[in-house]
Amino acid sequence: MTTTLILALDYGVKKMGMALGNSLTCDARPFDILAMDNGQPDWDNLLGIIKQWGIHQVLVGLPLNMDGSESMLSKRAHKFARRLAHRLAERRQAVAVMIYDERLSSKQARATALENGWITSIHEPIDDIAACLLIDSYYGQPEFAIAINAQS
To answer: Can you give the pTM of this predicted structure?
Structure first.
């Protein structure tokens, strides 16, 4: 059985949480929190991480409204995923990019982090933990992932 390495991204305008997932063990671990410049990452850094770690799949969280409709942030996350797919294709990096519903992941991440003592204040960052929850959701229901085409 081939192991697929997944990089989950909890997209945000100011920061983006990152987690690594392993398809063989179906687990995830927090990786990092990247600073964002009005929704834009340091592209060279992000693409370098994907290449260095041998990532096979990138899962971008899609922050939909509770009724399932798109929010301004979800539109930006979708655009970010398309740009990422395009940049990976330009570099000839064969990495699948997908979006995945992440409703309530930040609330759940904060509650989980407080409960487990990983953070002691509600003001501490939990973006990487939210990215872990994104991978966990994906492992449970991968059919809800939507592939992003580099040409779209």
So the answer is: 0.87
